[in-house]
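Bumping with the actual sequence this time:
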Amino acid sequence: MALYHFHADLIRRSKGQSAVAAAAYRAGENLHCDYYGNDADYTKKGGVICSGVLLPPHVPKEYADRETLWNAVEQVEKNPKAQLAYSYDIALQNELTMEENITLARIFLQEQFVSKGMIVDFAVHTPELEGGGIPNPHIHILCPTRPIDKTGKWGAKQHRVYALDENGNRVLDDAGNYVFNAVATTDWGEKETLLHWREEWAKYVNRAFEIKGLPCRIDHRSYADRGIDETPTVHEGPTVRAMEAKGIRTNVGDLNRRIRATNAAIQRLRKKIAELLSWLSEIKEELSAPQSPKLTNILAAYYGQRNTGAWSNKAKSGNLKQYAETVNFLLEKKLYTVEDLEAYVSGLSRTMDGLKTEIIQAKAKSKSIRDLLTFSQMYADTKPFYDQMNGIKFMSRREKFKQDHENDLRRFYLARRKLKDYFSEDGKLPISTWRRELAGLEQTVQRISAEQRPLWAEWKKLIGIEASVRNTLREMEHTPRKQQEQER
């Protein structure tokens, strides 16, 4: 099945990231970083099919060497919080051969990135599948955030645009400084540019499908933009897929299973509602003819016919009881005509849709909070290792400690990265607030579930009424008109 994935991110020094290490990981190479004075060795990483560096014509040829390029980036970016590189991950298509995927990706990068003056470092991956599973070919792309000018030198990321008064003179602020705005020298980091690239990639792939005569297509738009009333699944990635293939359940996998099950249930319910509304529309048209019977008349004919064929008084008594319950239900709901029933079903559909949306949102929010609480516990468990490492002054001992506790430190960095936006100024996390919010969301889910139960009961009742009326009308269609008049 053709799929669309185009993810954008930044390599930031403020997160402790290195452009050299990022490039080495993606290419599966061993690169030395002058800025940090260490080697990033990922030569044992599997799944790298090919890699390369694409240069615009005005860029010095030595930057075609990956280690030279990214060490130059590390050197020119002086700020300790510098944004070093744009990072993109794009899914390739299983419907195309690997050669076709690589050719298509290179054309896309040349026409959409390199033509804008961007340096592109790319690497094509196809992770090894353990225990089966769907292949996941994809391409990683790194581009320096700083442009190179026409002379081959690193240029500026921003330039000043001074505010001017009505006479064209520069405006001063209260401190006597000129007022200005910092304007980017390129549009590479603009949201509109990313949206354009996402749309163009879909067009490139769909043209390739069309050339091969394949019916499948991909779409860069979200479900909401396409008018699809479903909850999208979460991107799993190779690690999660490998764990799931081994039978190891993951949080992301469980969430996607719940989303798929919910979407399937919603589709079944919508199909039933559509069928019922279609049937009501047909019945409404039939009953719009002169002397059309009311719902109660149709049901009376139906149960009268059942009693005619009943063999025992017990069966007849049961039919009369069921008829009385059905009529009482219709009278209680003030459903006298097909129009009344149609309006009631439509209102019930809207109510159930609203509850569905509310419960999906509450469950998704609960999942997010549970993940935060899990990462909070992970952070608390592993922070002592991080603090102990920082307390070691001698480099050799520190490196030995890092090797001995590599897994604990990785879990700490993961938890800190996931929680970075939630720390207060004094370094604390709102754990109590999350727990209260989670408890409130669980109560919301219970409340909605309680509201749904009587709606399902009414729905079952409506289905029974539908079957009764449908069968009666079918019999009436085959009864001669004179007999119908006598029965009336």
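The tokens above came from a reply further down the thread. The two ends are 58 Å apart (CA to CA).
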